[in-house]
Design brief:
The structure holds two protein chains of two kinds. Chain A is built from three helices and 20 strands. In chain A, the strands form four sheets. In chain A, strands 12-19-16-17-14-13-20 form a seven-stranded mixed beta barrel. In chain A, strands 7-6-9-4-1-11 form a six-stranded antiparallel sheet, with no helix packed on it. By secondary structure, chain B is of the alpha+beta class. Chain B folds into two domains: about 70 residues, Gyrase A, domain 2; about 150 residues, Cyclophilin-like (Cyclophilin, Beta Barrel). Chain B is built from five helices and 14 strands. Chain B has a five-stranded mixed sheet. Chain B starts with 6 loop residues before the first strand and ends with a strand. Classes of the chains: A mainly beta, B alpha+beta.
Chain lengths: ~280, ~240
């Protein structure tokens, strides 16, 4: 079992999401940086969709009441086991009674903790991902207890080697969105040449400090996806993330690649990014 | 059987946006629903997200290219069968329009020049079309609000609107499926939840169903003397 001593800034349980329910308005959710999440599972020989713990900016303090093997991927939060610094991107043994602590994220924003064989989390609408009013929890709380799946044959060795991607990369690749053609040449040019600074951001959306003045009309409400870039009438640029609502009324001018969506999830307020269009 | 000129747009690397003409109508709804029902079972389609005049189709890009997928969809639409006039499901949803729940009822009555009972009559006599579910889990987009009730949304959205609030915003009316911020004018409350994650089907209502509100008193609400009625509706 894992006992939550401190929950951290915003910590949730995530798998690859709740697909098939968007026709009922249910967001897909799932790990923000799916690549890092899958890396952790693969290094432990788990199924890639096994639920993991996702920490944001400041990680949790967790106490283990049984021996197990874990793997930490994504942003570096200076993880320590029993006060000793521990490695990332490889299986790590934790003994019963030991505490795993995380500090503040340095390279990147989101850290993933995978547990060998996984955690015993209630599945709602075929996913274990937390989301308010759908899953029983919306984030980890102090004193919460998480049971682990039985793990009789722990594998402490891995022959896979994965290193941390470079989260300082600033280029986000994207496709033209359904309403791209509504943009003027000047507006298109600004998107392709200027830098943008991350402002307010969370699991639902990332916003930017820069504005693009426009006189685009809103559209008849239609589907949006994680990675859709909307331009609002007041000039705000909004990139929808994994917990975004399923439909929206702002023009959808670009669509991030999944790779760019993973990278953006490792960005935080103040980080600079550039857009690069991929022609389809 | 009318056929519309559809447009097909790439939306990312594993979705296709199919669009109908830019309008909101019961005929387009019926055409979208018919097409959606026909394509849902296809192996390479993972999920569809219908809306007023579009379907966004999430396909498996490992087994089909976007080009082939569009070809396939075009063929299916071209060869679609005429839809039989099947009766639809009509949901009758109890609403308590008491002023203690309808916080904005008086404002609405004043600005629209209608009495409270006229508003209740207009709101509960209409049979609404459920165009699709979006925005929040279990939020049906309803078409068919009487023009006399169309009201601009609030300039500043309220931070806390309670689950079950029945409200009017612009040309639409709807039910808040969860506590949330919102800019619509609240005229009543329904104790019925259309969405239950533990149900066999998480969302009771589906696109193409009909929905009507019926008025219950505060006493009936407090004594749980109401129910969600499911009827068959013939056009």
């Amino acid at each position: 079992m894992i006992r939550v001593i401190k929950p951290g800034f915003y910590t949730t349980v995530q798998d690859l999401g709740r697909s098939g329910y968007r026709k009922y308005g249910v967001p897909i959710s799932g790990a923000m940086d799916q690549r890092s999440m899958i890396h952790g599972n693969l290094l432990l020989n788990n199924h890639e969709n096994e639920a993991v713990i996702e920490a944001t900016l400041v990680g949790p303090t967790l106490e283990f009441t049984e021996d197990t093997i874990v793997c930490i991927t994504g942003a570096d939060m200076n993880a320590r086991i029993a006060q000793k610094s521990t490695a990332m991107y490889q299986p790590i043994k934790i003994k019963s009674g030991e505490r795993l602590t995380f500090g503040s994220a340095t390279q990147g924003t989101r850290t993933y903790l995978s547990i060998q064989c996984g955690m015993d989390i209630e599945e709602v609408l075929s996913s274990k991902s937390y989301y308010p009013n759908i899953a029983p929890n919306s984030k980890l709380e102090k004193d919460q207890e998480i049971h682990l799946k039985t793990n009789a044959n722990l594998l402490s060795q891995t022959y896979s080697k994965i290193s941390r991607p470079d989260f300082s990369e600033t280029t986000l690749t994207l496709y033209k969105g359904p309403e791209y053609d509504l943009l003027s040449e000047h507006q298109k040019n600004r998107f392709e040449t200027e830098h943008f600074t991350v402002a307010l951001n969370n699991r639902m959306a990332y916003r930017f400090q820069e504005k693009i003045e426009n006189n685009l009309f809103s559209i008849i409400t239609s589907a949006v996806l994680p990675g859709t870039i909307q331009l609002t009438a007041s000039g705000d640029i909004i990139i929808l993330m994994r917990d975004s609502q399923t439909t929206g009324g702002y023009p959808r001018i670009f669509q991030l690649t999944n790779e760019a969506l993973n990278l953006l999830s490792q960005k935080r307020t103040g980080d600079l990014i550039y857009f690069q269009i991929i022609n389809q | 059987m009318s056929s519309y000129k559809l447009t097909y747009k790439l939306f990312g690397d594993s979705s296709i946006l199919v669009e109908w003409p830019l309008s909101i109508s019961p005929e387009i709804l019926s055409d979208i629903k018919g097409f959606n029902d026909e394509i849902l079972h296809l192996q390479f389609i993972q999920e569809t997200i219908p809306a007023y005049n579009s379907i966004t189709i999430i396909y498996d890009s490992l087994i089909i290219s976007s080009f082939d997928c569009i070809q396939y969809l075009q063929d299916i639409y071209k060869n679609k069968k005429a839809r039989s006039n099947k009766p639809s499901t009509l949901w009758k949803v109890p609403v308590c329009y008491d002023l203690s729940y309808g916080k904005d009822m008086t404002y609405l009555a004043d600005t629209k020049g209608l009495s409270v009972s006229e508003i209740i009559e207009l709101h509960s006599s209409a049979v609404y079309d459920i165009h699709f579910i979006g925005f929040l889990p279990g939020f049906p987009y309803l078409g068919g609000l009487d023009e006399r009730l169309h009201t601009e949304r609030k300039q500043n959205p309220e931070l806390h609107i309670k689950k079950g609030a029945v409200a009017i915003g612009g040309k639409q009316t709807g039910i808040y499926p969860a506590d949330s911020p919102g800019g619509w004018h609240v005229i009543g409350h329904t104790p019925i939840s259309l969405f239950d994650v533990n149900g066999i089907q998480p969302c009771l209502v589906e696109m193409g169903d009909k929905l009507q509100f019926y008025s219950i008193s505060k006493v009936e609400l407090q004594e749980h003397n109401y129910e969600l009625l499911k009827e068959t509706y013939h056009d």
